[in-house]
Specification:
Layout (H helix, E strand, L loop, with lengths): L6 H25 L12 E8 L2 E7 L4 E7 L13 E6 L2 E10 L3 E9 L8 H15 L18 H6 L8
Length: about 170
């Protein structure tokens, strides 16, 4: 049984997403003077879903788009853990997630998708981009094609005479 097997798990995720989005909305004015801030983009949690014991989705802000693991129950903020990198196995392969967060959100795990957002022309474009990149992370790569082993090509002389040509002397 996972935390998402009932409506309570989904409700917890929705509540935690509300906290996360409100926190980044509150941080936005302080970030707005930075050159990496894109005023055409807002803050939005995109396509969060159950993934193991956590929610996984994309967080869009005016200064970054990250894939985020968000625990259902807040993990106490620990400044000594912030910045640590953990490798996570996703369907697309291993990815590095950096621990971050604060006293409001608790610890979260983030993987950078895009920053800065200078080429993003609107909030809708940021959401579409986030969805596409999240889908890539959640898609297994196509298996490597098997290499067909064929005998070495034969020369015309070998084909006509039925034997290998002698090495030149």
């Amino acid at each position: 049984m996972t935390p998402f097997d009932d409506d309570i798990g989904i409700a917890k995720l929705e509540q935690r997403l509300g906290v996360l989005v409100r926190r980044y909305q509150a941080l936005a004015p302080a970030m707005s003077d930075l050159p990496l801030y894109n005023a055409k983009v807002g803050v939005e949690a995109v396509d969060f879903m159950p993934f193991g014991e956590m929610g996984l989705g994309a967080l869009v802000t005016p200064w970054f788009i990250n894939a985020v693991f968000l625990p259902l129950e807040p993990v106490a903020y620990d400044p000594d853990r912030v910045g640590r990198i953990e490798t996570v196995e996703l369907p697309a392969g291993q990815r590095s997630f950096t621990l971050g967060g604060d006293e409001v959100t608790g610890l979260i795990w983030a993987h950078s998708i895009l920053s800065p957002l200078e080429k993003i022309v609107s909030h809708d474009a940021a959401v579409v981009f986030a969805r596409a990149k999240l889908a890539e992370l959640l898609t297994r790569p196509d298996p490597e094609p098997e290499i067909e082993h064929r005998p070495a090509e034969r020369s015309r002389r070998e084909l006509v005479l039925g034997r290998a040509s002698a090495p030149a002397q």
